[in-house]
Amino acid sequence: MNIHENSRYREVHARSLADPEGFWGEAAREIDWIKPADKVFDASLGLYGRWFAGAQVNTCYNALDRHVERGRGDQLALIHDSPLTGTVTKLTYAQLLQEVTTLAAVMQDFGVVKGDRVILYMPMVPEAMVAMLACARIGAVHSVVFGGFASKELATRIDDAKPKLILSASCGIEPGRIVKYKPLLDDAIALSSAPPQACIILARPQQACDLTPGRDHDWASLREAALAAGKTADCVAVEATDPLYILYTSGTTGKPKGVVRDNGGHLVALKWTMENLYGVKPGEVWWCASDIGWVVGHSYIIYGPLIHGATSIMYEGKPVGTPDAGAFWRVIADYGAVALFTAPTAFRAIRKEDPDGTFFGKYDLSKLRTLFLAGERADPPTVEWAEQMLHVPVIDHWWQTETGWCIAGNPVGLGLLPVKHGSPTVPMPGYDIKVVDEGSHPVPVGTMGSIVIKLPLPPGNLPTLWQQDERCRESYFIDYPGYYKTSDAGYMDEDGYVFVMGRTDDIINVAGHRLSTGGMEEILASHPDVAECAVLGINDSIKGEVPCGFLVLKAGVTRDAATIEKEVVKLVRDKLGPVAAFKLAITVGRLPKTRSGKILRGTIKKIADGEEWAMPATIEDPKALDEISDALKSHG
Ligand code: COA
Ligand code: AMP
């Protein structure tokens, strides 16, 4: 390896693997513990061992109280910028702490105690940050549900998490449309078999809503009453291994996986990343332009920057159209952000609107030091364009909801490694990445295979799925004994750089959002006229991939195919939500299959993407592929 001369990366990574307890034990000194761990890592616990077992801690204390106690009370903790409402809200650490202790006290009045679940179905408003921290403060386990999911998805999560309380708002705001949350919430609760005892609803000025008597309570009134009564809630000590949150993510069926995050490992890992990976110092302004509904939003809008004592920007808007392709540069300039973290799709959207980069020159971007990209593969043309426009390092890094922080990245704080376009660079501390074949044998350098991570996973990674240890074991730990299965395929080069090329399961990545095609197929198959279907991700110049559904209608169906196609598009939007971006359904006479009945998804995808393809030797009926080509042509 010849890549590390000017970076401390090699020694740091090597030490993390040779002496994980020493490495993470040292990193843990940055956290304020109520009681230290009995053991930094206890291999006898959980599915692959547990970090910081026996320790007691409070995540909210580490994110807020300790900074106020040590003189950061007047520093901004949050800058909320919403071009969609034309508002900017700033909260210092002291002000945020007051909001959090007040809401935490309100939640305690509803009987919420340590270990209770609280679902947050919230738009990108400051109150969402307050709510997450208030849960952490009293040891309640939050589960944030992304606003772009429909009622049925919310209902599934309610059934699984069984929340005592749901916190929501009257609406979210998308460009040109108000998303009324209350009807979605009401429908979800009606569908659910585990309705909450109560809901606290934030009435936004853009949309009024009726409160369901006996169940719903007005957020602002509760807050005012609690403030007037001087109610506050102290931090509750939790075990480091207790859950901080559950975040549902797409699995390979319609039933999402409830990824559990613990308190202690999460604190230690995120704190380590802020300085060593992202190169950000306490007191600096950091911007993660994601959504709190995704893991990136949890880790780097809320927890990471606050645990570190930085100022976090929360943005309710889009990269384009709110109002223009200069939106991101305006925010960076207005608040002096030193780093931006977003998804490549945002840059593709900006590039489409502003290919010559005219908006970049209109703003003072002198404070910006680094752009971080994640959520999907950063395609080299997008990275190159961003480098040319911003004149700062553009760092791709590879993540999963399960891991909570990045698996491979380029550690700015340890000394930047050379950037190789198309690679998220090298394994981060604690991650021992291998590329293997189906028999778990390592493949040669440069050869594609399944990417796996040698156990134990570092702190911050999922200990289990919510009340589904067995599903967790089966999903991640059985196929490659001794390893965590990432379900990503790729290769490593001679310098140890990782190249992540795509999923090995049915997950697709649409505008940086993780979706299951299997889940969409379940919805399509529920249409009364559909006999068989296949959904696959096809290339899209902005979103990376978009889903495309192929339908075979039941024998005897005489209704117009175009009408049925519209109906299934609506069905996916209604059941899964607009975030699926499912807009293309195509009726075909039959699906191309192998003689053993497997749908030839790879070949269909190549045809749809306009790539070269070869007739598979095992195909049952070659004409079926011609029919796919013809159907795609007729749908433009
Ligand atoms: N609530 C309700 N609806 C939402 C929503 C939310 N929170 N977020 C998205 N939607 C809707 C959109 O309005 C859109 O609806 P439409 O079909 O009526 O147009 C649909 O879901 C699809 O959204 P999206 O795929 O995001 O497309 P878009 O055209 O609105 O925006 C981008 C495209 C590229 C600008 C946008 O996807 C983006 O900024 N992506 C960054 C992704 C990101 O941050 N990922 C996190 C990982 S780092
Ligand atoms: P999520 O759980 O939503 O974060 O999605 C995780 C999946 O997104 C990974 O398994 C990858 O398939 C993909 N992904 C995320 N970041 C990257 C990246 N930097 N490069 C390639 N794929 C990525």
From TrEMBL:
Its EC number is 6.2.1.17. Coiled coil: none annotated. Keywords: Ligase. It comes from the Bacteria. Residues 520-598 form the AMP-binding enzyme C-terminal domain. Gene3D superfamilies: 3.30.300.30, N-terminal domain of ligase-like. Belongs to the ATP-dependent AMP-binding enzyme family. This is Propionyl-CoA synthetase. The lineage of its organism: Bacteria, Pseudomonadati, Pseudomonadota, Alphaproteobacteria, Hyphomicrobiales.
